[in-house]
Amino acid sequence: MAKTINRVAIITKINNCEAEKAATTITKLLTTRKVKVYSILPLRIDNGISVTPEDLRNIDLDFIFAVGGDGTTLRAFRIIPCNTPLFSINVGGHRGILSEVGVDSIAGAISDILAGRFFYDLRLRMQAFINGILSPPALNDILFTRVNLTRTPMLSIKLMDDEIKQRMDGIVISTPTGSTGHSFSLGGPVLHEGLDCLILSPIASVNRMPQLVIPTGEIEIKSTHDMQLTIDGQEIIKIAAEEIVKISRFSIDAQFIRLRKRGMRQLAKLGF
Q1: What CATH class does 126-249 carry?
Q2: Which residues have CB under 8 Å from 164's CB, separation 6+?
Q3: What rounded mean pLDDT belongs to the chain?
Q4: pLDDT band at residue 82, thresholds of 50, 70 and 90?
Q5: Does residue 55 contact residue 45 with C-beta atoms inside 8 Å?
Q6: Which residue out of 60, 70, 141, 161 is catalytically annotated?
Q7: DSSP-H helix ranges across 101-237
Q8: For residues 107 and 114, what is the distance between their CA atoms, to the nearest angstrom?
Q9: Which of 2, 99, 165, 224 is the most core-located residue (most Cβ within 10 A)?
Q10: Computed over its alpha carbons, how large is the radius of gyration of the chain?
Q11: What letter would DSSP give residue 175?
Q12: Contact between 185 and 140 (Cβ < 8 Å)
């Protein structure tokens, strides 16, 4: 029996005409089926109800459309209620590794979703705990990089009851979803998104520390110099020297709406 869809929201790539046009098409298709559509500001759509990300906390959404590239999808997962499923449409992006369909498949995708022909794809996320403050969840990766380009910091990395101390420019902690991001650029493996593990990828390690694939668990990082922490390539947090950063699994997994089962979906998006 198909799930009744009553309320959805749309978030788009900012200041992208193609994404906004696609959002208008989605709204028309849904409102004719008596579905209430909310547009997340700064997006404004005819027949859509404009809301802020904060307003979404008080709206019982069935799911959200993210219309744009992977950056739009990553941004959406940080601002929507944590248990809200997301359907990603690649419009104006590059590879669109996280997306399910492109702009030409919108009408068919909406028909499938309204008919209940979809499934949920759960992905683990991470969070950083810094000086009593929790960061927004990261779906792809958390990147530590040095601030002073003339000094190479010594990083202390505690994990699985062990400690590694190495001089390096920084380190990337990636989820399986983020294995196609910074980690891949550093020579890391592409992991199946359903795995329950993390990748640690050192950046310019003086002693050539290897990349590590480890079980999910708390990781504690400290640097002898000021560092910069970046969440999914979009949000930056300053980290003072000797300040402890704890990385752990976020309590609620990200939920993608998928139409078709695939094996290693990332490989096709990477061109393999």
Answers
A1: mainly beta
A2: 156, 157, 158, 209
A3: 93
A4: confident
A5: no
A6: 70
A7: 106-114, 182-185
A8: 11
A9: 99
A10: 20
A11: -
A12: no
Nearest to 4 by CA among 42, 46, 33: 33
Could you tell me where the beta strands, DSSP code E, fall in 20-161?
A: 36-40, 49-51, 63-68, 86-90, 101-102, 119-123, 126-130, 133-134, 141-146, 154-159
CB 163, CB 124: distance < 8 Å: no
| Start and end residues for every CATH 2.60.200.30 domain found in the chain | 126-249
Name the nearest CA neighbour of 39 among 65, 6, 70. Answer: 65
Alpha-carbon distance of 192 to 187, in angstroms, equals 16
Task: Flag whether pLDDT at 15 surpasses 80.
Answer: yes
Give the model's pLDDT for residue 1: 44
Class of domain 7-123+253-269 as given by CATH: alpha beta
State the span(s) of the chain assigned CATH 3.40.50.10330: 7-123+253-269
How is residue 143 written in tokens? 């990147």
Q: Is pLDDT of 225 > 90?
A: yes
Residue 62 is a catalytic residue: no
